[in-house]
């Protein structure tokens, strides 16, 4: 998780807060894909069509969120606010936690030679990463409740 620099100080390779944020984020992404797959299997009459449409929707959403998140983090005008918006994209959040030097050089102050304190940026990612995970959990829960509520009506429509 860290490496020694000049024998005295250390530099994190992967931030330790990723151990707390990544499992929740990954579970919510998998839950979203599962719920969407179940909803599409209820809506489509053929299995292949349900699988292909759910995979296409999940890929489209993931690519869209990743593009928005990476562009927010990469924007020099947004500064550390880009980290806040980037945390709401699951794949951008994972990249920020695993390799922040590559993704958010400007926001973290890496490469500037001033030894900038990155504690504020790390706290932003930690808190808004959890906020994003909570928001996506609410979306998945809403999808689940909607599916359960409308199950009978969906089955009746398919039986015609």
What's this, in brief?
Helices cover 73% and strands 5% of the residues.
Walk me through this protein's architecture.
Helix content is 73%, strand content 5%. The protein is mainly α and 160 residues long. Strands 1-2 form a two-stranded antiparallel sheet. Strand 1 (2-5) and strand 2 (9-12) form a beta hairpin. The longest helix has 31 residues, at 119-149. It starts with a strand and ends with a helix.
In DSSP terms (H or I, runs of 4 or more residues), the helix count works out at 8
Oligomer: single chain
Give the overall shape: elongated
The overall strand count is: 2
Order of helices and strands: EEHHHHHHHH
Mean pLDDT: 81
Query: Cα-atom Rg, whole angstroms?
Result: 20 Å
Flag low-confidence runs: none
């Amino acid at each position: 998780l860290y490496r020694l620099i000049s024998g005295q100080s250390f530099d994190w390779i992967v931030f330790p807060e990723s151990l707390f944020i990544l499992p929740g984020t990954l579970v919510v992404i998998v839950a979203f894909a599962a719920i969407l797959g179940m909803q599409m299997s209820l809506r489509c009459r053929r299995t292949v069509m349900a699988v292909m449409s759910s995979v296409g929707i999940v890929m489209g959403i993931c690519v869209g969120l990743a593009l928005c998140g990476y562009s927010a983090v990469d924007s020099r005008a947004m500064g550390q606010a880009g980290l806040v918006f980037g945390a709401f994209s699951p794949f951008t959040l994972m990249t920020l936690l695993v390799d922040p030097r590559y993704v958010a050089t400007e926001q973290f102050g890496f490469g500037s030679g001033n030894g900038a304190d990155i504690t504020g940026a790390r706290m932003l990612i930690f808190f808004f990463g959890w906020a994003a995970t909570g928001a996506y959990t609410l979306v998945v829960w809403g999808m689940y409740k909607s599916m359960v509520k409308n199950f009978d009506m969906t089955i009746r429509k398919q039986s015609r």
